[in-house]
Structures are given as structure tokens and as C-alpha cells.
Design brief:
D-Maltodextrin-Binding Protein, domain 2
């Protein structure tokens, strides 16, 4: 993912560290609060397997960005084997199918609650991760993990519509624009059922967490109506397609919109006034992990304020880490995209919760039907 970096972020990398970030001087480097904490597994040949969303960590691929995994390896001596997935459902299917040997995963809220219910996650010890003190109170005790036993918040954001200002001229952009025949063949759509159904549910006046079979079926019919207008169902492909001007409209995540807007002046982002999903992605340890202590050390490292800042600036998503948030520029905090107005968040944003097995299965079956319909 392209970088989303504040104006004062220095473009230089020196000896694998980020200097001049936020209010830091050029001489400063990424700080860790307790270097001795990270020395426990040095020279022991330990490795951890990390499974994360694509384009969802600072990886050093751009000037001014650090490679978070490399920094962790050099600090701890623990090797990081890093692979990626495109959707919660892809990650879940791989974990559920067995044979997946991961120590760290980063699911979204509703998937976390599902995996807790199915006994797929290990309990984690917050006391073993002192940097969790930086997790803001508003991201503690949330419905998907009420007692904060299985997850540590990583990033959060909202869903809206990325659009090409040169083509889309409407002033008030709502979800219905994705059904506008004027843009036939120029519309992209989520390639995952939960996000796609949420849009249709909102348009029909239903809860984004509905379990009603009738409402799910009505939402599926709404999505079928849209299908003839769609150019493609996408996830990470949205970057290439919107960046290259191959499409004019795409519902997607605010963090990715910010990233695209940094690189393409013709792109903008709208959060429909009718409401949207607000999501939290959190770090979890699968119950099958063989390296829980090392995994908790990795989580603690992600919670270092400088590391959390580097990640949120690199990927464009919003941080739940108070130490990182305090270092952000005011123009980022007030852009209306990364950190929407609190009143709007409380009144018009819905957090996904885990649905019943029956509702999940019905949604998946309906989604398969939608995708296969001609």
C-alpha cells in the first residue's frame, strides 16, 4: 500500500529506523519503552508465523517507511514469517480447514467473536504486554470481545465510497449511487458477503446485523439488481482499478481511500449520511500457536507508540493507540475521513457482530447465488 504520511514525516531511513517522525528530531529513532523486555528469546532460533491483511503494515517499500517486521526481528532475534489474506472469510476458511500454523492473525470484530465462539483463539495476557496501556478506553470492552481476553485492537475505520471527481458530479453521495445506471460498467463492488450485504441492508432500512431470513433474502435481491451494473467484484484490486481510472465508484475502507487520495488528485471519498459500518481489526493468537509468549511480544511491539504511528501513517487507517494518536498532525485528526466526527460515529455507525450459524450460512449461500447469477 502507498504511504499516508504527514507533512512533517521525514523521508529518510537511517540504519533501519524512522527519524524525524511527527514531533521527533532528526536525531531520534523509533523508541521502545523497555529494550530488555525484547531480549528474552535472543539467539534461540525462534520464529513466528504472522497472517495479516494485504497492504496492512509498514513494510519499508516506500521512502520514509520502516519495515516493522525487520525492526522486530533485529530487536528480538525472532524471525517473522509473514503471509497475507484478502478477506476475513479467506482467513477463517484457512484456519478452519486445519494445517494453518499461525501465531498471529488480525481479524475484524465480527470474525473475532465468531472465532471466540468456536474456540479458535487463545486467551492472551495483557499483563505480559505492557504497551496495551496505550489502547484507548473507547476500544476496550467492545462487544466482539467484552472482557478483552482474546484480542488487542490494531486499526479501525469506516466504510464509504471512493469516487472519481472527474466523472461523478453528485454533491450528496449515498449508497444508492452504486445502483445508478448512469455509471453502469464503471462500478466496483466488495467481493465479500458481509460488506456487500451491509450496504444493501442499510439501503433497505435493516440492521447491518440482521439475522432475519426475509431481510437477508431481500438484501440479496437488492444486490442482484446491482449486478448488471458492476464492472467487477474486488478487494485489493480496487487500488489498481481506481488508480488507473478503470472505474468511477467503489465502496471500500476509509484507510485505503486516504492512501489512494494521496496519490491521485481525481479521487475523493464519501461516507453516506444514512450510516455505515465502523470496524475494528485486532491482533489475536490462534489456539494452535506454539509460540504464545513470542506472539505476545510481537503484539506488544505493535503497540509501541512509534510502531503504531508508523503503521497507521503507512497504511492510512486509524489508530486506537493513544501514544500514536497524540503524535498525529491536526490535519489528519480533522480530515473527516480518518477520524470522523464522534457524534456521527455514535449515531450513524454500526459495528458488525457475529451472526448465528444459520444466518452466516444463509448469507454465504445467497452470496454464492448472487455471484453465480447471470
Amino acid at each position: 500500500m502507498k504511504k499516508y504520511i504527514s507533512a512533517v514525516l521525514c523521508a529518510a531511513l537511517a540504519i533501519g529506523t524512522l527519524s524525524g517522525c511527527g514531533s521527533k528530531t532528526e536525531e531520534s529513532a523509533i523508541n521502545v519503552e523497555d529494550k530488555a523486555y525484547y531480549e528474552k528469546f535472543k539467539d534461540q532460533g525462534i520464529s513466528i508465523n504472522v497472517y495479516n491483511w494485504g497492504e496492512y503494515i509498514s513494510d519499508g517499500s516506500e521512502s520514509g517507511m520502516i519495515d516493522v517486521n525487520k525492526e522486530f526481528e533485529e530487536l528480538t532475534g525472532i524471525k517473522v514469517n509473514y503471509t497475507t489474506y484478502a478477506t476475513n472469510e479467506e482467513m477463517y476458511a484457512k484456519m478452519k480447514g486445519g494445517g494453518a500454523d499461525y501465531d498471529i492473525i488480525i481479524p475484524s470484530d465480527y470474525m473475532i467473536s465468531r472465532m471466540i465462539k468456536e474456540d479458535m483463539l487463545a486467551k492472551i495476557d495483557y499483563s505480559a504486554m505492557p504497551n496495551t496501556k496505550y489502547i484507548m478506553d473507547s476500544f476496550r470492552g467492545l462487544e466482539y470481545d467484552v472482557n478483552d481476553e482474546y484480542s488487542v485492537p490494531y486499526m479501525w475505520g469506516t466504510v464509504g465510497i471512493i469516487y472519481d471527481k472527474d466523472i461523478v458530479t453528485e454533491e450528496n453521495i449515498g449508497w444508492d449511487i452504486l445502483w445508478n445506471e448512469k455509471y453502469a460498467g464503471n462500478i466496483l463492488m466488495f467481493d465479500n458477503p458481509r460488506d456487500a450485504f451491509a450496504i444493501a441492508e442499510n439501503m433497505l432500512g435493516y440492521s447491518m446485523n440482521t439475522e432475519s431470513a426475509d431481510e437477508l433474502k431481500a438484501s440479496a435481491e437488492k444486490l442482484k439488481e446491482q449486478k448488471p451494473l458492476i464492472q467487477a467484484y474486488v478487494m485489493d484490486q480496487v487500488f489498481d482499478k481506481m488508480g488507473a481510472g478503470e472505474a468511477a465508484l467503489a465502496p471500500y475502507y476509509a484507510g485505503d481511500a486516504v492512501t489512494l487520495m494521496q496519490d491521485y488528485d481525481n479521487l475523493d471519498f464519501a461516507i453516506p449520511e444514512s450510516g455505515t459500518n465502523i470496524f475494528v481489526d485486532a491482533v489475536c493468537i490462534p489456539k494452535t500457536s506454539k509460540n504464545i509468549e513470542a506472539a505476545q511480544m510481537y503484539i506488544n511491539f505493535l503497540c509501541e507508540p512509534d510502531i503504531s504511528l508508523a503503521n497507521c501513517e503507512a497504511i492510512g487507517y486509524s489508530t486506537p493507540n493513544s501514544g500514536a494518536y497524540e503524535q498525529l498532525d491536526d490535519d489528519v485528526k480533522n480530515d473527516g475521513i480518518s477520524y470522523p466526527d464522534e457524534d456521527f460515529r455514535k449515531s450513524s455507525c454500526t459495528t458488525f457482530v457475529n451472526l448465528s450459524d444459520e444466518a452466516n450460512q444463509l448469507m454465504q449461500d445467497l452470496w454464492t447465488e448472487i455471484k453465480s447469477a447471470r
